[in-house]
Write a structure and sequence with these properties.
Blueprint: H1 4-18, E1 21-22, E2 25-26, H2 35-52, H3 58-71, H4 74-81, E3 93-97, H5 107-116, E4 119-123, H6 132-142, E5 150-152, E6 162-166, H7 169-179, E7 184-187, E8 191-195, H8 202-213, E9 223-229, H9 235-240, H10 251-266, E10 272-273, E11 278-281, E12 291-297, H11 300-309, E13 314-318, H12 346-351
Parallel strand pairs: 3-4, 3-6, 4-5, 6-7, 8-9, 8-13, 9-12, 11-12
Antiparallel strand pairs: 1-2, 10-11
Helix pairs in contact: 1-3, 1-5, 1-6
Length: 353
Amino acid sequence: MANLNQRKVAFITLGKFLNQFSNKGIIKKENIPHNELFFDALKMQIDRSVEFNGWFNKENVLFALESWAEALREENINQWLKPYQVNISNPKTIAVIMAGNIPLVGFHDFLSVLISGHKILVKQSSNDKHLLPILAKYLEYVNPEFKNKITFSDGRLADFDAVIATGSDNSAKYFDYYFGKHPHIIRQNRNGIAVLTGNETEEELKALGEDIFRYFGLGCRNVAKLFVPNDYNFDNLFKAIYDYNYLLDNNKYTNNYDYNKAVYLMSLYDLLENGFLMLKEDPSYTSPIATLFFEKYADLEALEEKLINEKDKIQVLVSNGSVKNSIPFGETQKPKLWDYADGVDTLTFLLEQ
């Protein structure tokens, strides 16, 4: 296959192509390779993905494309790859089973396999099947050596050397049963959490709204649970996130809100709610759509100890700097290339194959 530098150039070029598609506008630029073939084609696939999946509104699809355009900048790729010796002499076929909860959720695995020099066998989720194939085709035009390295499969996977599979806790058991004998990364449910102290500014709480509501809360990096002081008053939070009430314009979100609210009320649970989000005190980390779980704490140090012990349930942690290893509010859906899902270094795994 082309050497590492050529592979990097192909993905950097893809990033420049994607940079034409954002929520600021879809604007065709000069000097983008293969634009005449792919610009209108990607526009069409964006529309198809929105029509096909009620959770994939145009704003979220374009947000995902914007995020990848940023991630694929030359300086980001170089910083990501700097610690590694990327030198595969015997390329393997890596099967990648992708989730479909948010647009292009499997792209990091796709990028990692190809940048490492391996071949990829992709099994997409039926919920997110329109965007990746056209990006793969664009890469093949930029660098024809990718042509024999990318395969999409709808059927049963065969003839592969290692597996990366992402799904729910239930599907992880299935993946382990079928793929356990191969070298593998199998990912399960994890969620974002936020630790609040009561000292957050209105801007920070508004940014927390982005962490909660981007992709309707369906991503593994979305905040699904809050930890709050015993005497926490939720009024400031509800006020800060009220602008997200437009989520009720989405029928699927509204149906989930109505259904979950009815279940909770029939079960006589205590709820706090503002008309589009319910807050429920619950020790679980995974909350239903339109619901945020919360848990109270008395001591930050004891809470940090608890979070360390339960880190296998946590994808990302946000705070205003009050707890270690947290990121700022509003940043959960902007992971860097080196922010690996479940804390498992995908590239090291691939380079060991």
